[in-house]
Amino acid sequence: MRRLTSFACCGAVVACAALSVLAQDSGGTRPSFYSLRKDSRFESGCFGPCACPVLLSGPVEGRFRLRLVSSDGLFDNYSVDQLRWVVHESTGDVLVTGSGTYRVGGEVARQHELSLDLQVGSDPIQHFDSGLVTPTSNFPNIDIRISIDGETCHDTVFDLHARRVRGLAVDRSSLSWEQAPTVSGHDVVQGSLNALREHGGDFSLAVQACIGQDVSTDGIPFGPDPPPGEGYWFLLRDVEAGIADSYDSGSASQAASEDASIARSPSACP
Fold first, then answer.
1. Ranges for all domains in the chain classified under CATH 2.40.160
2. Would you state the torsion angle of the CA atoms of residues 198, 203, 204, 209, taken in this order, to the nearest 10 degrees?
3. What's the CATH number for 5-23+165-263?
4. Residues 26-56 pLDDT 10s
5. Is there a contact between 192 and 232 (Cβ–Cβ < 8 Å)?
6. What is the DSSP letter of 225?
7. Region for 3 from its dihedrals, namely left if φ exceeds 0, alpha if ψ lies in -120 to 50, beta otherwise
8. What would the CATH number be for the domain defined by 32-163?
9. pTM of the prediction?
10. Which of 84, 131, 118, 82 minimizes the C-alpha distance to 257?
11. What is the pLDDT of residues 79-132, one digit of tens each?
């Protein structure tokens, strides 16, 4: 699976420089960007003992930012902002925006809680909460379900699986990235900066090669330099439990998801 690690380029006229992405260590005070795994889902309908079907269901993709704001001895408290998700329903895509808080810690057992005020499409802003629950994975991974009414009878639920955007660096001989213990592999695509510019940011026409498929290490050799006047870009996605995640960066400055565009290229990783 992958959290978005998007990245960068080397030019032939200048030496290649190591580049770091937007993500920072979640244990610090600087923000970390998160991307939703492709198994994140939205459900609206009946839950628990109520005998009626789920009315709406679909995958969710997108990102948000986490920033540590305080530690009270029991919990580390984070703000959640720059949240932008898209629910893919059968009738069309629905935009989700909002903000909130996340806390993780506990006196005896590890617990965490995600509380968000979300606007789903044109609906009024509503409060979604997980309650204080035991995590199914280790932070900085976030796997959690949030709902309006605690999944009692008619409710709206987000089943979220979010991973922190990690660093990707490039030099003259290799690409490298932060390793993540739960990730089994990584896919890396390379493309042309000139083609990306000429085609208005369409990655499907700018991908040159899948230079790493399901790579289990924290780097791969790379070379040679691009020809004069050309530059390369690189994007990384994680593969976790057989699920390939997103190439997106998680940054609010990203205009649209890169995944669908890259998937259209015959040179993309399978």
1. 32-163
2. 100
3. 2.60.40
4. 444 578 889 888 889 999 888 777 767 667 7
5. yes
6. P
7. beta
8. 2.40.160
9. 0.73
10. 84
11. 999 999 999 988 889 999 999 999 999 988 999 999 999 999 999 999 999 999
